[in-house]
Design brief:
The protein is an alpha+beta fold and about 270 residues long. Helix content is about 25%, strand content about 10%. The protein binds iron/sulfur cluster (SF4) (3 copies). One iron/sulfur cluster binds next to helix 3. GO terms for molecular function: 4 iron, 4 sulfur cluster binding.
Length: about 270
């Protein structure tokens, strides 16, 4: 009897331990997945597949980050080694653990000509063909890691203070970012020189974000899906020949009503007595 009591107690203790561990595991897992869900704004290395596909493809080997850390040009002006751009996410980073990402405000992507982080990727999570130019060479200008966005209220150039730190830091100066002239109506005699980012050229490297002089950067990189809108295919630009092509076979639809039989001028002159 004592033996069977002991066995029952042991069984209950083991069961409760398993339940406890399962619950703890569940809590940890839900905490972890909440952490990942809460971090949709992560920036990935050049050539990364769209986020969902990237997460499925990346085998978390860290070769991209290693290539980034060890690249020869990874030096500060004084010759000292600077930290790599790519980090491998760990607990607390709010990014899927073991995947590569970067934070421009800490270390931006220096847009290396040979893009050492990409050819080493064994899984295709970093898609090399997407970075090839017309002559089949790797071209970092084709990278779309994100898109820089200017927050007008905190950018001091929009206050009328002269600042072009972001513009000067951009490796694609006058292409990805331009300074646009505008009259300062407040003073009447000064001009604004305003930074404008061009989404068809900006690579999302974040060198502008790193260079911004404000307390929190007034220019910052967001993943493309969070920094762009979408007009919809039913809008056609009348001044764009290529866009016009889309509707060249569209049938004209005429709606005939009693009203449309009359000329517009008939309405204009209605009830007007001369
Ligand atoms: S291209 Fe950017 S992410 Fe890739 S190795 Fe160079 S600095 Fe690192
Ligand atoms: S090299 Fe490719 S598979 Fe490996 S961690 Fe980087 S992105 Fe993921
Ligand atoms: S992120 Fe900034 S620095 Fe980099 S290409 Fe775009 S505008 Fe230029």
């Amino acid at each position: 009897m004592a033996n069977s009591d002991n066995n029952r107690r042991k069984f209950m203790a083991t069961t409760l331990q398993s339940v406890g561990l399962t619950a703890l595991g569940g809590l940890l897992w839900s905490g972890y997945s909440d952490e990942v869900k809460a971090a949709p704004l992560v920036l990935r290395p050049p050539g990364a597949l769209p986020e969902e596909d990237f997460l499925k493809a990346c085998i978390k080997c860290g070769l991209c980050a290693e290539a980034c850390v060890n690249r020869e040009s990874n030096k500060n002006r004084d010759g000292s080694k600077r930290p790599g751009t790519l980090q491998m996410a760990k607990g607390g980073d709010h990014v899927m653990i073991g995947t590569p990402f970067f934070k421009p405000v800490e270390v931006p992507c220096y847009m290396c000509d040979d893009i050492p982080c990409v050819p080493v990727c064994p899984s295709g999570a970093l898609d090399m063909p997407s970075l090839l130019n017309e002559t089949e060479e790797l071209d970092i200008n084709k990278a779309r890691m994100g898109l820089a966005v200017v927050h007008k209220e905190s950018c001091i150039a929009f206050w009328g203070i002269q600042c072009d730190a972001c513009y000067r830091a951009c490796p694609l100066l006058d292409e990805a970012i331009t300074l646009e002239y505008a009259k300062n109506e407040r003073t009447g005699k000064h001009a604004f020189l305003l930074p404008v980012v061009h989404s068809d050229v900006c690579t999302g490297c974040g060198l502008c974000e790193k260079a911004c002089v404000t307390e929190e950067p007034a220019i910052f990189v967001l993943p493309i899906e969070y920094s762009t809108g979408k007009a919809g295919s039913h809008y056609v630009k009348g001044w764009d020949k290529k866009d016009q092509e889309r509707i060249k076979d569209a049938k004209e639809i005429h709606t005939q009503t009693e009203r449309s039989e009359k000329e517009a001028a008939d309405y204009l002159n209605m009830e007007v007595e001369y």
